[in-house]
Design a protein that fits this description.
Its main location: membrane. Belongs to the major facilitator superfamily. Phosphate:H(+) symporter (TC 2.A.1.9) family. It is found in: Membrane. By secondary structure, the protein is an all-alpha fold. The protein has a domain of about 210 residues: MFS general substrate transporter like domains (Growth Hormone, Chain: A, Up-down Bundle), CATH 1.20.1250. It is about 65% helix and about 0% strand. The protein contains ten helices and no strands. α2 runs antiparallel to α9, α4 packs parallel to α6 and α5 crosses α9. The longest helix has about 35 residues.
Length: about 300
């Protein structure tokens, strides 16, 4: 038997481990300072309203620009229908390509929170630039006189498209990160929280549709009837609200540390596959992992369960 001090030390260590397993998350999440987070104070539904509000306002801002953009190019910048349609589709295509940049930065370097924060700021600057281009007289062509409609100058086009493509870059850091950042607020190792994650995605897509509905109806009506400066200014205001909503929830968030670029890991898998093509498959699936415990070799990540589906 050990001494009284040794028994007491073992007992205290066991109590600490027992409390830690119930008080702290089991998925490796941390707070904004990198410390382990308490389940009772962070994440779960208490953090989700800020994320859902951010997504709703961002989608309202995006659709408030994209839904009626062809009309602005033809009526205010006096472009032809073909040129206007080509410019809009090119911009929308860029909006769906830039998430590749945001996703890689979030996974490899910054994490989801700081990627959203940085690209939201870029997005807001783009919205403000677009609003100025539709409001300041020198930034837009003069009104049509009878059937004569002066075209925009190269400088006016440059200001408008600069703001437009800042928005495309900004959405590239928000679109791939917000939904997964919301999912990070639920601990996969807790069965109760894992069930709640499904409900979060239902509310997430509900928020998207609410933003799109308001933009496609109210914002479009304002643009056509009250002016484009106000029609672009209101989405810019909502984008500012989105940023404020996102940052105000910072003390409640759970953060996952960046685990490295998935592109690098995909290449590593392909190289390892070629090198081990003829290696025998061990009967014990636990021998397929590179580390013996529950953690992955990627910091902050857990092991994937072994399956025979692709054997």
């Amino acid at each position: 038997m050990g001494t009284h001090e040794e028994d007491r030390s073992l007992l205290e260590e066991g109590l600490v481990q027992s409390e830690s397993s119930g008080l702290y998350t089991g998925d490796g999440s941390v707070d904004v300072k990198g410390n382990p987070v308490l389940k009772s104070n962070t994440g779960n539904w208490r953090a989700c309203p800020f994320i859902l509000g951010t997504e709703c306002c961002e989608r309202l801002a995006y659709y408030g620009i994209s839904t009626n953009l062809v009309s602005y190019l033809t009526r205010k910048l006096n472009q032809g229908n073909v040129s206007a349609a080509r410019n809009v589709t090119t911009w929308q295509g860029t909006c769906y390509l830039t998430p590749l940049i945001g996703a890689v930065l979030a996974d490899a370097c910054w994490g989801r929170y700081w990627t959203i924060a940085a690209f939201s700021t870029i997005y807001f600057i783009g919205m403000c630039t677009l609003t100025l281009s539709a409001t300041v007289p020198s930034f837009k062509p003069p009104e049509c006189i009878d059937s004569v409609c002066p075209s925009a100058t190269p400088a006016q086009y440059a200001i408008f498209f600069f703001g437009l493509y800042l928005i495309a870059l900004g959405t590239g850091g928000i679109k791939p990160c917000v939904s997964s950042f919301g999912a990070d607020q639920f601990d996969d190792t807790d069965p109760r929280e894992r069930v709640k994650k499904g409900s979060f995605f239902n509310w997430f897509y509900f928020s998207i549709n609410i933003g799109a509905l308001v933009s496609s109806s109210l914002i479009v009506w304002i643009q056509d009837n009250a002016g484009w400066g106000l029609g672009f200014g209101i989405p810019a205001l909502f984008m500012g609200i989105a940023i404020a909503s996102f940052f105000s929830g910072t003390p409640l968030y759970r953060f996952q540390k960046p685990g490295g670029s998935p592109l690098t890991r995909m290449c590593q898998v392909l190289v390892a596959t070629c090198h081990k093509w003829n290696s025998p498959l061990p009967t014990d699936s636990s021998l397929l992992y590179e580390t013996p415990d529950k953690s992955s070799a990627i910091e902050g990540s857990r092991k994937l369960l072994h399956t025979d589906e692709l054997k």
